[in-house]
Design goal:
This protein has about 1050 residues and is an all-alpha fold. Among the domains are: about 240 residues, Alpha Horseshoe (Leucine-rich Repeat Variant), CATH 1.25.10; about 160 residues; about 90 residues; about 190 residues, no CATH class. It has 48 helices and no strands. Helix 14 packs parallel to helix 18 and helix 28 packs antiparallel against helix 29.
Amino acid sequence: MTKTASAKRKRAEREALKAAESNKRAKSFHDASADGSNSPDSNDVADAATGSNGTRLPKILLEKKLFVENSTGKDRVREAKLYDLLSSENETDRLEAAGAIISSLLDDEGVTEACLTRHLDWRLFRGLASGRAASRLGYSVVLTEILSQLLGPPRTLCRDKYPGLTFDKVLEMLMERTRFGGNISGQEERDLYFGQLFGLECFVRARILFLEEEGPDRWNEILRLLVKLGGKKIWLRPQCGWVVAQALAQLDRPRVEMVLQQLVELGWAKTPEGVGIWLVAFEQCPELTTGDKAKHHHPLSSRNLGELAGILKESGQDDVEKQQKQQQQQQQQSRRGNYVKNKQANWTPQLHFVWDLIVRHFLRKGPAGVDEFRSFWKRVVDDNFFAKTATEGQKFRGFLVFQKMLQSYADIDDLLDVLFSRNLMTCLINQASQEDRFLHRAALKTLKVVEETSAAHPEATGIILDNLINNNGLYRFDVMTKSKTVDKILQHVKADTGEDVIQVLSGPVMKTSTTSKDINSVKLDLRVYIEYIFRLTTSAPEPALQELTSLAYAKPIWIPENANSLVTELSRSRLQSAFAKLSRKAEDANYLCTAVQSINPDYIRMEGEMKKEVHAARKRLEKLMKKSASASESSTDEIKISQGLALLHAIAIFQLYNEEPDAFQLLSDLKEYQTRLQTDEEGAAEFLVEILLSLVSQQSSLLREISQRVFGYFTSRVSPKALELLLDVLSADESAKGQQSLFDVDADDMDLEDMEEDEEDESDDEAGSDAEVDSNVEFDALDAGDDEENDDDEGESGSDEEADDEEAQNLADLDDALGQILNSHRLDKDEDAESSDNDSDMGDDDMLELDGKLAEVFKQRQKAAPSKKKERKAAKESVVNFKRRVLDLLEIFVRNEAGSPTTLAILQPLLQLVRTSTIKTLSDRAFELVKDYQKRARKARSGGGGKSTEDSKLDLEEAVEVLKGVYAELKAGETKSHAKAAVPACLIAASGVFHAGKGDRAAVDAIVGDVEEAPPTQLEMKKAWDEWCRNQEALKKKAAGSAGKSK
């Protein structure tokens, strides 16, 4: 049949399919019209439902019916649909279609020989060359089964039923339908190659090649064709080799030896495919390894490793010579000015199947084969794929081998330890460190696999870490590779293996600290070590905190003297950051208290008075922890108070350990608070808010987190006067004046003229002040990429120290300049000064010259002084940040006390902040807080949680005063953002007056009622209030109706 006839046949099949679909739709419509319904037939619905989810084919396709030789009409449609489904990407559809086709060809008496020939020749073998969807997979299933029944036992249909379909005839059909040649495209050529490969594989899988009555002729012919096909395209050879390897599973030892001999004769013995086939043979017939001669031929024996390395490297001496000649030609042409396009390496992310067999070989041997594996890895991989002379493509393949074996041997420590060899680690670090390297992405992918393997196998983390930062790796691995590999690995450490990991991390830095003479290198390693321990606090907090505590206070003997101050400062800072992180994540507040209690006070050098104070504070902390643990479930308020005081004591003790100047004051304030709590509860609440404000104003994330948590424990005890202390912060000016009022800055330190200019410069600073300034600033390149922690205390302390150093340096420079001009020196430098014999008086000209020089020096000094604008900006930012933190506390208060009458007092200050603040983020936060308050107040009144306003006996006069203040603020606003916040705030206050007056709206109407000619905001408020009242009436009627029904 010609191609034209084939095209006509396909076109006829498509037309038949379309006609069948049209007839079916017409019949469905006719049936539905006849019985007066629009629903389709139930069978059709079932068929459509089962067909749509891909679990079962329509019944018409699965019926037991043989194909006919000359199909027409419904038979042709059924045949076309089945073959179409045979190409489906849905495996269930594909397999059911394959079963239906096999049954339609060979069930019962089977079809005629002509019909079977047609299907084999024009359907199945031609379908193997199709690249559509999953055609090759589906057609291979059908062909394998047909070949098995046609040419193999028990049926062997070719003897009686189909004598014309012999092995040679069927194989000839395959070769005819997959013959390539002529002017065809590259894609068509690839389809034909793969079709022939899949067809030959069907003969192998049908298990018809090694029948005793047939002899070796069938296998010899298939093997010849596979070797021939593999020789035509290099990318086909591994696939052909894998088919041969699969065939060995059907053979006994004599025939296996025969196949191995054939490979030698065909020239495949010393190829990667040959190595793979030999490994399969030894795996299937272990007795082949007995005898000296057999051992000599084992591919992985030590005597063959040199030759094996060349085979697996897949580049012989001829390729090297060709590459050198090509480079010489390119250089010559470049000298002549000709453009030469560099040829790209043909890399593939898929490894040869021989590597799977090698992995399986050593995996089967386990730890007993570690010596053999070490020799193999060094000779074949490390000194081969990662040698200096290796090409980029070979190194890329080496990375793939490493990834595969790393994932396979993660549970075998001895084999895992061998993988991180010298050349591999050198190549990995070099390629990962620079983006312009050819294998940079491959190296990053390899590091990603290392991270994933560590996460999937936490027990292997110690060995992986040891090889990354020790042995053939680098201690500053993340710094050198510009990655976070070690950082992420430390996050997957199991808590029970934390101490072992710390030993792995500390080993190299201890060795460097005690043996290295380069103090700068030692300090870098110590900084990295502290960062590693800090990262470990996430996954193994207890041992990591103990190690950080030891570094911060104990001063280990292995740390050099000139590095002690660095280690102490940095470890204390990271310890504080760790506490802040744990305070955010830990549900149990006692965790932080326990961590502080675990710090041995003997580590810290303290004077007698300080030691007594610490001892007493630790006793009080212990009592508070016991009290919170022993309190009954009913006394939740006492538990919260004990937990809050315990947290504050823990912070105070920690600050004492760090020699913070305000630590003693905090402890004395806590004593006074506990005393006031027994006598004056309202005064104690004010005093506690003052303590928390003093903590939250500091540039420390830990103090901010603790302050918020403690405030959450004490919100039920916050009095109106205590709340007023928080609200006063919101009304402060966002300028130097506000800073002076909030932080008690001395008036002498403030320039009156500067404060007057603040208001003029506020608009200029608005954009720069919109972000919080107390973010963490790490003065170290190691932490430049740390996006997880914002340790505000480090940035603040670093800024202060830097400012002090800069001021001292400026004064020293001024002294030097004046000394050179006046030929003089400071009194404390008499011993170092040179004697001067020039005691002559200066003349007028000299005095004028001296005066000019002094004026120039002081002019430069004035230029070097800090900018007043920067000082004003810093003052404004400090006030803005303080307001942000107060808003955090108010958010907690609203969350816990939305139903309390005390909470109404926050409405007017929040609206004033929306109206007066020049910082958009502050206005937005205040608006969101008003909306949150409205939602939570509504929920509290409906009994959904919190304290009910009605139950709290809200005073009507106080509620009216709050409403007047809020409504006055509503009228003062001029912006849309203020109006959006003012209307819900007024509704909250108005609803409070409504409930305090027991459902009488007259008091509210007296304030917001007369708005006939009012501005739009007041009209909107009146409309919202009327709507709210109508909703209340509807709810009241609904409740009354429900009560009547219940009676």
